[in-house]
Amino acid sequence: MNKLELILALKNDANISKSEAAKVVQIVFDSMTDALARGERVEIRGLCSFFVKNYKSYTGRNPKTGEKVSINPKKLPFFKCGKELKERVDY
At 86, is the secondary structure helix, strand, or coil? Predict the structure, then answer.
């Protein structure tokens, strides 16, 4: 399912216009993105959680030349599947 399919599902289930459904989906995604950018955890009970993982700097290697490269510290979003979703998928 992609974003457009999610919008159409919301439109049909909630009996609202496509533009209203698109606005609702965009608000939800923007709110989740903003929370993650602030370093907050986003949890949707029974489905999943998103949080930001902090990675320390380390020395890597350029696979093409073999040269050592310093990798800067970074923050990346991380997805963790919820128990109910795992059970539902692995029926």
Answer: helix
CATH class of domain segment(s) 3-83: few secondary structures
The predicted pLDDT at position 77 comes to 95
Nearest CA among 29, 45, 48 for reference residue 37 = 29
pLDDT digit string (tens) for 23-48? 999 999 999 999 999 999 999 998 99
22 vs 33: CA distance, rounded Å: 16
What distances in angstroms separate CA 82 from CA 25, 36, 44, 67, 89, one per listed residue? 21, 18, 8, 41, 11
